[in-house]
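wait is this the right file?? whatever heres the structure
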């Protein structure tokens, strides 16, 4: 219950297990990359990385459902509304099942054509297609873990999701090595290991929810969709889903530019994304914690407490990101060397990563204050900020720098255009988020 006690202590105690869980979740993709890079080679590493933006796009619908469910669960939990809480959880489980089935049927025929349209090099095309198809078929595991763990966090339980994710991470590592090194399934084996592990973690989350009868009722009648709750989930979750879709769309558009620089640059970006994933984890964890914190306190009508928690939570996030930025600058080359034995690739990855380093501090501000706004029910403002920074800024800047720096030696322009465009979008995003948070319109967006 985050409506009582010292705000920063509540936020920190909620954030720490979730941060450990997020790090464990990042280990999924990191171990995938390490196993692929070490056992198969740099081209296979590039194949896994090129699949990332498309996989993220496939998940946007469930990210939206998860965001809407988490906000509703935290506000109804704060308001002690047992009936509404029960319907919210049951309806989200049903809607997720319907969406999973529809997504598989609609998207399966288009995986390879999408990869071809993005100028994916022929040398990694088959690996990308295999990885994405297996992830698509196993989408239920990926979707349900995100949604069910979001519900647990909305109820104030970030510890259980951590334990289940740690179990699944160990399973994923073992299966990665087995499928790739022993069975020699290639890139497809990595995808299969991830899917199996996440299915297990989602089942464990569902069992835990079913046992939390002191807070809500869990039965067949609550699984039947009710218009009011479904509409509220959509209203709250759609902006978050669209935000992720906007971000993923920008990544896909930029991925086409990335692919033009060749396999080594693609592989370097994979290495950067894996280190980036760990660097971003504290920001995402504080942001999610502040969403739950704001949701529960808004549900209880404690707006002064929300404002106090926003200041303390953002400060903790900024300090943490500053430490991480320093660590990246000091130990970056060693981190890059974990993924590949190719020294040229290590150097390229580190040089590109240095461009992004200071941006993590800006993202700490964006994630923290966006979390407060979302938890209060204002999911539209973060969506518009994301739209501006990714579509109106990042994509034009990336392609603009590429175009302006073309030479005979650099027919596609300077490779740094990808990282520079991302850094600019992060800095401006932090500024806009701070301005809109200070305007305070989020205080009038609570669920009625």
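ok assuming it is, sequence goes like this
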């Amino acid at each position: 219950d985050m409506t009582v006690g010292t705000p920063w202590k509540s936020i920190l105690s909620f954030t720490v297990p979730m941060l450990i869980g997020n790090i464990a979740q990042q280990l999924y993709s990191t171990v995938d990359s390490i196993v692929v890079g070490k056992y198969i080679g740099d081209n296979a590493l590039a194949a896994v990385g090129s699949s990332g933006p498309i996989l993220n796009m496939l998940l946007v619908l469930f990210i939206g459902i998860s965001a809407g469910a988490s906000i509703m669960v935290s506000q109804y939990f704060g308001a002690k509304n047992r009936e509404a809480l029960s319907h919210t959880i049951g309806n989200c489980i049903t809607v997720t099942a319907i969406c999973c089935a529809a997504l598989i049927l609609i998207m399966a025929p288009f995986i390879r054509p999408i990869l071809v349209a993005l100028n994916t090099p022929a040398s990694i095309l088959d690996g990308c297609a295999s990885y994405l198809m297996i992830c698509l078929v196993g989408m239920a595991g990926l979707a349900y873990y995100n949604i069910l763990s979001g519900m647990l966090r909305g109820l104030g339980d970030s510890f259980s999701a951590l334990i289940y994710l740690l179990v699944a991470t160990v399973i994923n590592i073992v299966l990665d090595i087995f499928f790739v090194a022993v069975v020699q399934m290639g890139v497809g084996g990595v995808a299969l290991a991830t899917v199996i592990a996440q299915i297990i973690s989602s089942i464990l989350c569902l069992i835990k929810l079913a046992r939390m009868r002191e807070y809500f009722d869990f039965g067949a009648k609550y699984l039947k969709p009710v218009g009011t709750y479904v509409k509220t989930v959509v209203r709250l979750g759609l902006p978050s889903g669209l935000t992720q879709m906007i971000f993923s769309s920008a990544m896909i558009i930029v991925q086409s530019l990335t692919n033009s620089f060749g396999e080594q640059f693609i592989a370097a970006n994979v290495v950067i994304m894996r280190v980036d994933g760990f660097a971003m984890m504290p920001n995402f964890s504080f942001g999610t914690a502040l969403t739950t914190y704001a949701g529960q306190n808004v549900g209880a009508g404690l707006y002064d407490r929300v404002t106090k928690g926003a200041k303390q939570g953002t400060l903790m996030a900024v300090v943490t990101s500053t430490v991480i930025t320093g660590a990246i600058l000091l130990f970056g080359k060693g981190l890059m060397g974990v993924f590949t034995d190719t020294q040229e690739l290590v150097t390229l990855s580190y040089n590109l990563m240095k461009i992004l380093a200071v941006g993590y501090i800006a993202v700490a501000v964006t994630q923290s204050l966006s979390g407060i706004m979302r938890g209060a029910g204002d999911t539209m403002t973060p969506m518009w900020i994301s739209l501006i920074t990714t579509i109106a800024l990042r994509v034009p800047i990336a392609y603009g720098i590429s175009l302006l720096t073309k030479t005979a030696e650099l027919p596609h322009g300077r490779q740094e255009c990808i990282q520079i465009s991302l850094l600019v979008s992060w800095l401006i995003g932090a500024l806009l988020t701070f301005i809109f948070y200070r305007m305070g319109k989020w205080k009038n967006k609570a669920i009625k």
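The two ends are 21 Å apart (CA to CA). so i think its the right one actually
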